[in-house]
Amino acid sequence: MKTLSILILLPLLGVFTSCNTASNEYNRNTGITHGTVQLHLQKGVTSQTEVLEKFGSPNIATTDGDMEVWTYQRHGTTSKSAGVGGSLILLGGSTSGFSQNSRTMTLIIKFGTDKKVVDFNSRYSSF
């Protein structure tokens, strides 16, 4: 009798634990957050080399007069899906759900002729 109970409960446990999945495509280790920007960028102090070491290569590099402008953009989505069907059908119903969030971080850094940060701005958008 005990073996029969275990054989019935194990598949049900598997259904409950395997039906909730989360996919996190947004890489939080990109090094670009409002906190890291405020921590690592100082006007007149931080050099281009230090920015490259901390944030990597920019997505876009342009000039504005004598200043060099680097733009970083990081995009990510967080998806969650939850569905419990097979085991709840035995109880008379089923549920499922899906949600997805998109986030974009944009960082713009301006460098002077001495290759030091003159100005920077960062923005988040989330929807």
Which value, in Å, is the CA radius of gyration?
24 Å
Domain unit count? 1
Low-confidence stretches are 15-29
According to DSSP, the number of beta strands is: 5
Average pLDDT number: 75
Q: Which sequence of SSEs, written as H and E, runs from N to C? A: HEHHEEHEE
Structural class: alpha+beta
Task: Please give the largest β-sheet.
Answer: 5 strands, antiparallel
The number of distinct helices, counting runs of at least 4 residues, comes to 4
Strand content: 35-45%
Helicity level: 25-40%
**Shape, per Cα inertia axes:** elongated
Distance between the termini: 52 Å
In short:
This protein has helices at 2-18, 34-40, 48-55, 86-89; strands at residues 20-24, 60-64, 67-84, 95-111, 117-126. It is α+β, with helices and mostly antiparallel strands and 127 residues long. It has one domain (2-126).
Describe the structure.
With 127 residues, the chain is an alpha+beta fold. The protein has helices at 2-18, 34-40, 48-55, 86-89; strands spanning 20-24, 60-64, 67-84, 95-111, 117-126. Mean pLDDT is 75; it is low at 15-29. The termini are far apart. It has four helices and five strands, in the order H-E-H-H-E-E-H-E-E. It has one domain (2-126). The chain is elongated. Strands 1, 2, 3, 4 and 5 form a five-stranded antiparallel β-sheet that branches.
